[in-house]
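Shall we go through a protein fold together, starting from nothing but its sequence? Please make up or recall a protein chain and show it to me in full. Go ahead whenever you are ready, and we will take it from there.
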Amino acid sequence: MTHIDINHLQHQIQNNCDISDAKYGGVYSLCGLLLRMRDLYKWQVGMQPWQEPEPTDLLEWVDAREKQWEEIAEDEFQILVIGEDNFQPFAVDEINAVLRPLGYIYGAGYGAAMKPSFFLGELADSRRDGNLRIDMIDRELARDLFVSPAMRQGDQILGRRSAMLFSLWDQILEMRPSIKEALTYALIQHNLDARKLRTCPKELGPALHRVAEVELESWIYHEIGEVREEVFDGYLWHEIVSTYANSPIELFARVIKDLLADTHEEGLLAHVIAERKKSSLGFYITFMRPFSKLMFPEAAEAFKRFQEDSNWQIIDKARLKGYANARRNALALVELHLEGRKLGAESAKSQILSELIEPLGILTAIDDEEGEDQY
């Protein structure tokens, strides 16, 4: 078995994380950036999500972090030296072939607005689902501003328990009026009271570790649905989001792809329905972004009816309708993008905005989305 200096590797990966944040931190809204920096600080100093730092400590850390970013903003991502071998920072499969037997998992990819993202974590569990490998990550040793509870890299799906825990707490802490009903419903299924969690986090917060672990198992099926859906060709999908990066079209494309995954017959909602997971249904509605709610209004409508009689057929009908709508939008987007190849990116962008996005009346929702810290 290869021997590696995990501390040295951790430092190398964290350095690339910091470079990514320095170069691309501006893709987030000011509110979103501050929330992400708060969570990053908590992770770095070993705090639980429900623990709040001293304001002066946090401000000093933010100031130091911004100065560090200024110093490294022009740096390039570093080659990773593992043992006697060198690896490109996005060579995920090759790196994990070395790390997995040692109990570690490495992640590298692109988040919203094509922000590069990296992390290193301890492997808690690994299993197969057909041709997919599902790795569950416990403690994280290196990470950047971007976090997502579940991620996919080719045929590998990564579940990040720490990210799920932070995501759950952020929803509980904020408890917007628009999500209060669904969040309260979801937590009740775990015998937890949202109001008491907010007022007594020190005593009740630790119970969320188990909630995060359970709910992450459902979240994994979003990634499975993404693998199984075939409306977006993989190469074409990446071409679309990179061509229109950091624009309403990128967000539109990402929301459609997410909805295709969630409503696919092997995706998240199908799993929730098959397993009768009421808590996961409540959390699904809780985590829906403003844009997604407008593109898939049937979900919230069905959830309201479901609370009255727990009829899972209502949810399945909504799922099928949501899939049909997402598929239609996806095909229209692909058609306009392919036509736009002949006319140029700017012409294609204008056409997609005028023919697909503006008629939906969702540009306001896009502005709302940029004001929230969504994963």
Q: What stands out?
A: The longest strand covers residues 116-129. The radius of gyration is 21 Å. The beta strands are 80-82, 85-87, 104-110, 116-129, 132-142, 150-153, 156-160. The longest helix spans residues 312-343.
